[in-house]
Structure formats: C-alpha cells, structure tokens
C-alpha cells in the first residue's frame, strides 16, 4: 500500500478543519477560518476544492459573518479564485455579486478592501465586467450606501474617488478597485462607459481617474494607468479625451513621465501649461510598468493624423526623448523609439503602429 506523501500528510488535519466552516457555532467557524487562511495560497489550497466545491460554497456564506470570520473568508476566496472552477462558481452567482456590492458599500464592513480585491479577481471571468456595467440596485432587496445612483459602476466609482483617504470606511482605501476598472475597460462595453458622460452626474468617468496618475499608492497608479490605456482603444473618443475643455487627458499622461529635466524655452513654452515650470525636485514615476502603460497610451493616441499633429504641437517628443535617456529599461526604450518614429516621421509615409494588446492588468491577487 502506497504511503501518503509529506504534502498529503500535512494536508490531512486541514481537510478536517475545512469541514468546520459550516459549523453552527461561531467560535468554531472563527477558529476554522483563521487557521485556514495561511493554507489558501499555493497548491495546497486544493483542500477547498473537495466535495464539489462545498468549502467554497460555505465561504460564500461566511463573507457576511461577524468579523474576523468574514475577513478570513474573503481572504481565502481571494487566494483560491485563480482556479477556473472556483472562479466560475463565484462569477456566475449573481446573488453573490450583489452581496459583495452591499458589503463593499457598507461603511462599517471591515473587509471592504478585501472585497475590492475579490471583485478584481472575479473580473477575470468574461461575464463579470458586463454584469457590473449593467447591474442596478433593486431597492426593495439591496441598499447600496455610497450615493443615490442605482448603478453598480457609479457606486464603485464613488467609493474609489471619495474613499481614497478612508473617509468613507476607516478600514478601506479601495485602491484595488483600480484593477477592477482596468479589466472592465478591457471590454468594448467598458471602454464606452469610461469615455462617455454618464447619466448619473453628467461626468465622463475617466476624468475621475486621471487625477490619480501621480497618487502615492502604486496599486492605484498601476490600475489607473491600465484603465486609461485600455479605454484609449476606443479611437472615436480620442478627440474629446484630448480636448482641453473636456477631459484634457494629455497632462495626466505626461506628468508621471517627467523628471527634473530643464527644457529649452522653445520646447517648454509649447507644452501643456500643466507640465511647464515643474519644480527641480520633480520625480519621474518609479515603476516601469506604469511608465510603459503611459507610453502605450500615448502610442494609442497617435491613431489619427489630427491627434498626431496635436502631440507634435504640444512638444510631446522632447518629453519622450528624456524618458528614453533616463530610464534604463529595454521595453520602455523600445516603446519610446516607436513613439518617436511616429511623431517625427513625414505624414506622407504610411503609418505603421505595432498593435498594443488590451491590458489584462495582470495578476490575480494573492493574500496570506
């Protein structure tokens, strides 16, 4: 008879513990959840995928339990949601999605940031972005507490903007919603949402996000940069996004790319006023993935001759030149070179821009 492997022996007591997630006794559920969090990341999390995913079904119920049970339950679901079967179970349950919205908008819910992470992971399922875009509050059943809008996306946007300083929930800053927005913008319906004025407040949603391109939170900067880039695949929106009296997106793409460089007057005076006369201690974005996303956004903006002419007029080339000189990264320099080739070439030449793929905004969030 084959002897159990060391991994199987280590799993055995935790397999028993998983069974206590459905205990009617609160103290037992608390012990079970608390001890299982550390076992939910990595291959050993297969213990949650037994008995036709019953442990996952139990955890879905526990997200509304008392803290710290609810926090541990959401934490575990975040870590196991990279499994396709688990993701399918979570993403296709519309009642569970509405439950998550009711919890994340509850100012007293202590695990709101974990809900943001879970929603971001669930958005990897192809059905979730569309559901969130179309979901409206059913007043008799659901009470979302952030604003008067009945639309889920308006609620989430208000959380992200108004709650960044923990003023809505003292336990949450909602930074991970930026990753959710990036995945939503990866779909045509999502791009339309972010680039068109909304009935709720008459504001184009992307204008609420671009102000965070230099925020102190790297998570927020990365997610916002990817959301902007994915939204710019909607070429017809470029005109209004570039308009100085509407979105005025260009300065928010250029500022993170700029350091303490001193440009000659003949270059700087034609740049957007927001990027002129920057302080001598101005720091360039330190994360290369964010720099690359902003460069790719500029590349997408070159899709039409009119915008290319505008980028030349506003002296974008010297800024890209300095990024190429300052950042020692092959990918960034390659994007800079492609962008410079487009901005500097004769317009009579055929335009060739290497396709930029929609950003999946990368990684499934894991917590331990």
Structure report:
The chain is 52% helix and 0% strand. The chain is an all-alpha fold and 368 residues long. The chain has helices at 6-18, 26-36, 54-62, 69-80, 84-91, 94-104, 112-122, 128-134, 152-162, 177-185, 188-195, 206-209, 218-231, 238-242, 250-254, 265-268, 288-301, 305-313, 316-326, 330-344. It is elongated. The model has no long low-confidence stretch (mean pLDDT 90). The chain has a domain at 10-80.
- The percentage of residues in β strands lies in under 5%
Reading the helices and strands in chain order gives: HHHHHHHHHHHHHHHHHHHH
The termini sit apart by 35 Å
Helix/strand/pairing category? mainly alpha
Overall shape: it is: elongated
Helix content class: 40-55%
Radius of gyration equals 23 Å
- Low-pLDDT sequence parts: none
Number of strands: 0
Task: Return the average pLDDT rounded to an integer.
Answer: 90
For the largest beta-sheet, the strand count, sense and barrel status come to: none
Query: How many helices does DSSP assign?
Result: 20
In short:
The protein has 368 residues and is mainly alpha-helical. It has helices at residues 6-18, 26-36, 54-62, 69-80, 84-91, 94-104, 112-122, 128-134, 152-162, 177-185, 188-195, 206-209, 218-231, 238-242, 250-254, 265-268, 288-301, 305-313, 316-326, 330-344. The two termini are 35 Å apart.
What is the fold's blueprint, element by element?
Blueprint: H1 6-18, H2 26-36, H3 54-62, H4 69-80, H5 84-91, H6 94-104, H7 112-122, H8 128-134, H9 152-162, H10 177-185, H11 188-195, H12 206-209, H13 218-231, H14 238-242, H15 250-254, H16 265-268, H17 288-301, H18 305-313, H19 316-326, H20 330-344
Helix pairs in contact: 2-4, 3-4, 4-7, 6-7, 7-10, 8-10, 10-11, 10-13, 13-17, 17-20, 19-20
Family: Belongs to the HGH1 family.
GO biological process, one term: protein folding
Domain Protein HGH1 C-terminal: 297-350
């Amino acid at each position: 008879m084959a002897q159990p492997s060391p991994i199987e022996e280590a799993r055995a007591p935790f397999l028993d513990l998983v069974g206590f997630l459905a205990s009617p006794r609160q103290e037992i559920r608390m012990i079970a959840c608390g001890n299982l969090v550390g076992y939910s990341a990595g291959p050993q999390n297969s213990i949650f995928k037994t008995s036709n995913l019953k442990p996952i079904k139990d955890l879905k119920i526990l997200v509304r339990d008392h803290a710290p049970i609810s926090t541990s339950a959401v934490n575990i679901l975040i870590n196991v949601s990279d499994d396709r079967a688990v993701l399918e179970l979570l993403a296709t349950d519309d009642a569970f999605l509405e439950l998550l919205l009711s919890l994340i908008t509850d100012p007293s819910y202590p695990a709101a940031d974990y809900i943001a992470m879970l929603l971001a992971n669930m958005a990897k399922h192809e059905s979730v972005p569309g559901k969130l875009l179309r979901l409206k509050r059913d007043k008799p059943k659901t009470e979302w507490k952030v604003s008067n809008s009945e639309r889920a996306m308006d609620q989430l946007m208000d959380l992200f903007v108004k709650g960044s300083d923990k003023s809505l929930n003292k336990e949450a800053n909602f930074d991970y919603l930026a990753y959710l927005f990036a995945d939503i913008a990866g779909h045509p319906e999502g791009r339309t949402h972010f680039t068109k004025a909304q009935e709720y407040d008459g504001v184009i949603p992307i204008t609420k996000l671009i102000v965070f391109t230099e925020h102190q939170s790297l998570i927020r900067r990365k997610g916002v940069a990817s959301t902007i880039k994915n939204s710019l695949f909607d070429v017809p929106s470029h005109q209004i996004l570039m308009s100085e009296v509407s979105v005025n997106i260009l300065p928010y793409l250029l500022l993170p790319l700029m350091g303490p460089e001193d440009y000659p007057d003949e270059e700087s005076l034609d740049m957007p006023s927001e990027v002129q006369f920057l302080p001598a201690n101005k720091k360039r974005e330190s994360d290369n993935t964010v720099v690359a996303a902003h460069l790719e956004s500029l590349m997408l903006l070159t899709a039409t001759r009119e915008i290319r002419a505008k980028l030349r007029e506003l002296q974008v080339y010297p800024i890209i030149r300095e990024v190429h000189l300052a950042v020692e990264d092959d990918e960034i320099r390659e994007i800079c070179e492609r962008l410079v080739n487009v901005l500097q070439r004769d317009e009579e030449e055929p335009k060739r821009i290497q396709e930029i793929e929609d950003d999946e905004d990368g990684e499934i969030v894991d917590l331990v």
